[in-house]
Amino acid sequence: MNILNIGITYHDSKGLETISSAFEDILLDEICAKTIYDTCGEEAIDQALSDWEDGTTDAILVVPAENDRKLNPAGLRGLDMIVWGDLRMAFAKEDESFEEQMELLQQSLVREFDIDHPRIVPNLDTENYRIYDAVMVSDREQGLRDFLELTQGNGVAYTTGRELVCTSPFSAGSFRESIYVAKDILRARSRYDKARQNPLPKLFVDRKEETRKRQ
Fold it and tell me: Is the confidence at residue 26, as pLDDT, over 90?
């Protein structure tokens, strides 16, 4: 995938300003073909989802209303995450199995973030967060506060557990990163899936097994 074809939605005029400002960077056009929807809010998200289902776009980016820091502005089912660089935080839902959500996070880290044998912890250690791969927290509000304090208000929301890749910036400064995160996830998925389409043939034959076959 060379150029990401992304459907971009926004909720207010501030969001449109963020989009326009970001694409003043000519380099961004080299990695992202964009569809910016004329309508706002839920109607735009519905259009973006329809285009993705039709194969018109590869991913969706939702710019939330100003000061509206939702983890899942598109209302998708799945495990909500926020990422910034090597810092990844997932938010467990109380009404769902913690073990299943943990398994989903592990699968995401392997398939979507190229991390083998991911290390996950239950709390954010702001001094030593680089020694693990992700955090799974149960207290959403506290976890989000800790994350944004560490990243100075930056972050990219992403909901894993579905084929649709939908990202959302937590600040104007996170907009470009929302595109990069979407592209990186799609590339990682492609590499992961292709590597498992045609597994290598068995290179070594168990001699005892081969002997039994000859008898």
Answer: no
